[in-house]
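Schema walk-through. Below, the input block comes first and the output block second. Nothing else is stored per chain. Lengths vary across the set, and this one has 390 residues.
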Amino acid sequence: MQNVTTGEEKNIVLEQQDRRLQEQLQKIRHKIMVMSGKGGVGKSSIAVNLAIGLSLQDFMVGLLDVDLHGPSIPKMLNMRRERLPRRPDGRIGAIVYSPNLKFLSIEPLLPSDDSAVIWRGPLKISAIRQFVADIDWGKLDYLIIDAPPGTGDEPLTVAKTIPDAYALLVTTPQEVSLIDVRKSYNFCKKVKMRVLGLVENMSGFICPHCGKEVDLFKRGGGQRLAEDLGIRFLGRVPVDPRVVLAGDAGKPVIAAYPESKTAEALEEVVRNVVAATEELYRDVEEGRYMRVAIPVDGPVVSSNLDSADLFALYDVEKGQVLVKDVAKLPQNTSLDVWLKEQVVTHVLTTTLSETLQKQLESLGIRVVSGIPEKIKSDMALQDFLAGIVK
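--- output ---
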């Protein structure tokens, strides 16, 4: 007799996977999705060299390739024939590249290196969730996620699955690339993903004969765009023929040619990424950046968090409200998991159960109870920001 999965059983499976996701993500301090508005800007090269550079600074690093149709990470690391290791406890681990770096791609899971992945959205979403929830990444300082170009299923799934990930945007100085990377920036605003900064790749050309730098693809467009958007400029990386040779040979240039100008530029990007991630992390830890959820019944605060299904969500930076949304808790979804998916850092409520409070605090969500009944949510937030309620 054929087994039929009921809707209730499916919800239980997804909730279990959600909890495994949260358990795994709590072991990773910083998550960075490397994005570009268009292909051909060297995004994967930046992702690989960033991961290598961080690992050389003694950080524990994971590199996740979510380009399911054109995975390039195994080739660039010269590890196309490696297969996923199985742990003594039965769990599957990521592939170890070095003592400080492990990676995962769809390619080791395919029947052959040349197999085509012909999947629509639901299959891609499921695979990316499994890459995080079902793979033993261990404790990491950084998880670098190499996403395909554009704003399709893969980056959208990462934004939903890893809601506290930062976006690192990669562009070339050319106008056509700058136009497309603006779309990636707007995507981040739409899904409420914080932007770590922008890297200008292929910025100048290093002549292999004389070593001089030539502005082959212009220069400075990425830096001007970063200033225009009000985001960090993380550095400029020149074109160097050895980048192509090193990538094809599976020897990332930052390690293969450490004395080159390109490696020096990449090392500066690594240093800037470390400084930027720590700054953003401290903003959350010290309350300069918050995402506050308040259960509401119309315009006023709901009387009990446990039974609430409608929430006012506020993005607050340095005491100023940047964005306000209203969102409904989906049916058959656990409240604590959903709040974590919404990147909530604080919850303001009138009352809640001790069990729910412990669940939220275990996820790093601070709970502020005792909000007066029938007060408007905007006023409750202002009282919290003013220190009237704590």
